[in-house]
Amino acid sequence: MSLLNEFTKGIIKENPLFRLVLGTCPSLAITTSVDNGLGMGVAFTGVLLGSNIVISAMRRIIPDSIRIPVYIVVIASFVTMTDLLMHAYTPAMYKALGIFIPLIVVNCIIIGRAEAFANRNSIVPSVLDALGMGVGYTLALVLLCTFREVLGAGTFLGVRLFPESRAAIMMILAPGGFVTLGCILGFLNKMQSKTA
Amino acid sequence: MQDYFIIVISAVLINNIVLSQFLGICPFLGVSKKLSAALGMGAAVTFVLVLAGLLTWFFQVYILNPFNIGYMQTVAFILIIGALVQFVEMVIRKYSPGLYKALGIYLPLITTNCAVLGVAILNIQKDFSLVKTLVHSASHAAGFSLALILMAGIRERLESADIPKCMEGVPISLVTASLMSIAFLGFSGLI
Amino acid sequence: MLDIMKLAVFLLVVSAVAAFGVGYVNSMTAPVIDKQALRMKTDSFKEVCPQGEEVKNESERFLKKNANPLIKEVNVAYKGGVPVGVIYTIEPKGFGGPISILAGFDIGARKVTAIKVLSQTETPGLGAKAKDPSFQDRYKGKSAEADLEVTKTPPTKDTQIQAITASTITSKAVTSGVNAARDHFAGNFVK
Question: Disulfide-capable partner of A28 in B22, B81, B126, B132 (CB 3.0 to 4.6 Å)?
């Protein structure tokens, strides 16, 4: 398996949100505007990168029976660091993402990658895996955000596209999140069955 | 008294943890296929949520706050929850092997259930007393169970419905959740 | 036994390193976060009391033991050494938790200059609208001579504030906080 493959698989074939259907909670909650999606994507990628690197580096010395608690400590630490850094240097984004920054720690994608990949591969492939998954997740989030922000608020990245009175507020509320993700997944299923 | 009433109504209906706050989606989609599994999961989550709310509250008030290490909240809480779930799993395995078998893999998965960590953090954010924390946690657990049971009921019916192949499974469940969420939005004018 | 000890020690070492790392980042970011909070506070003060040039925290002088517990801070704004306004930090209990509000009063005009909601955990789309200028502006210029009351319909009297649609609890909470401040203002600053 070429190294490049480790990177690209996270974007399409094994896209964590659309194919593996992991990390759904934040994807529904914060995808109300594209810059939120980007912010969360970057924060997530940062944590995943840190976690994959550390766990991959330690993979030979982590005793098997306590590997899950060790993953959790490592991931939680990176999440806390990210939380503090965002609070200090990107306060607006910190406020927008709110409780979902600490919730990155229970984002199944990160523990999933630690267990499925970082634990049995060396550092460089792990880095690429993290970056690929991160980029894939970010793209998925941005796609969701685009639908919701454009249809729900009439803006894209804050730039107004059409008057707010014409926007479907429901899209940026809870139901909009569910239905957008559902339709995207359904659409992707259809695409896959066509090419299969 | 009115305070408690508001906490309960708000957690179960208005700010339902799954349908308005988007926490606990993974088990919501994963376990809601059969009503019996949904009931079991609801019970397990209730138990863990209330205990976790209790333990994390104590930890926050007696250790994190006095020592001014509030920033360790995420690490501490997730470790407490993980240990709690592990402990609950051991207890259930010993005293009720039938229940243990029924819950299967869902029990350890409660650790990564964002609803548990989410509610624990919310308890602290809202500055609740111990009793209010318990009520709040139990109410959210009830809200979660309610959403889960409703979804399971609907999904069991969907089995015999005529759905486009590409929408089967998760996609149609999400659309269903969307409709349920709209319905629950209607509760927001209650208070 | 030795095995369990080894595992425990390993976990402990990992946790210690992690705690050290997080603590380091915390020490790096804490001053930045504090400075930010202070800047936001000064900016907010200017917003609710634009006529003041210098603001001094005089909570000790003005908050006696029997003062309303909703009032957290009393800041007096001076211009040219003369007190021109008072800024109260009030924290009434809203629907979802404490709402932190700044209320600015004009000493000479005996009016509310403006209010600013600093932080709230109300329902998004409903009570959370309390932080919108459209709600906060309703308090601008209100007389400080009598308590304000909340109505659901457009106000007919000058002492009325129209509630946010479907968020009477939030609206009432904010108003009760402003009233507590008004009461203190009338008792201490109006001759």
Answer: B22
- What are the tokens at B54? 């209790």
Residue of chain A nearest B182, judged by CA positions: A175
DSSP secondary structure string, chain A? --HHHHHHHTTTTT-TTTTS--SHHHHHHSTTSHHHHHHHHHHHHHHHHHHHHHHHHHTTTS-GGGHHHHHHHHHHHHHHHHHHHHHHH-HHHHHHHGGGTGGGGG-HHHHHHHHHTGGGS-HHHHHHHHHHHHHHHHHHHHHHHHHHHHHHHSEETTEE-S-GGGS-GGGGSHHHHHHHHHHHHHHHHHHHHHH-
Among A6-20, B145-159, C20-34, the minimum mean pLDDT is found in A6-20
The answer to pTM > 0.90 is no
Per-residue pLDDT at A47 exceeds 90: yes
Instruction: Please tell me the predicted confidence (pLDDT) of residue A43.
Output: 92
For residue A48, what pLDDT band results from cuts at 50, 70 and 90? very high
Put simply, the answer to whether C123 touches B126 (Cβ < 8 Å) is no
Report how far apart, in Å, the C-alpha atoms of C136 and of each of A96, C113, C114 are. 21, 11, 7
- What digits encode the pLDDT tens for the residues B98-153? 777 766 666 777 777 788 888 888 888 877 888 989 999 999 999 999 998 898 88
If one counts every other C-beta atom within 10 angstroms of the C-beta of residue C111, the result is 17
Q: pLDDT band at residue B189, thresholds of 50, 70 and 90?
A: low
CB B98 within 8 A of CB B92: no
Q: Which residue among B15, B75, B188 sits closest to C22, beta carbon to beta carbon?
A: B75
Using alpha carbons, select from B87, B185, B74 the residue that is nearest to residue B121: B74
How far is CA A156 from each of CA A38, A41, A94, A138, B153, rounded to the nearest angstrom? 12, 17, 20, 16, 38
Q: Is B1 helix (H, G, I), strand (E, B) or coil?
A: coil
Cβ(A147)–Cβ(A168) under 8 Å?
no
Q: Mean pLDDT lowest for which of A167-171, B181-185, C77-81, C85-89?
A: A167-171
Is B189–C26 a contact, with Cβ atoms under 8 angstroms apart?
no
Q: Which residues of A touch C10 (CB under 8 A)?
A: 61-63, 66, 70
CB atoms within 10 A of CB C31: 10
Distance from CA of A29 to the nearest CA of C (A): 12
Least confident segment among A4-13, B75-84, C145-154, C181-190: A4-13
Residue type, A136: G
Evaluate the CA torsion angle B8, B124, C123, C101 in order and state its sign.
positive
Q: For position A165, what pLDDT does the model report?
A: 65
Query: What single string gives the DSSP state of each residue in B80-140?
Result: HHHHHHHHHHHHHHHH-HHHHHHHTTHHHHGGG-HHHHHHHHHHHHTT--HHHHHHHHHHH
Name the pLDDT band for C125 (thresholds 50, 70, 90).
Answer: low
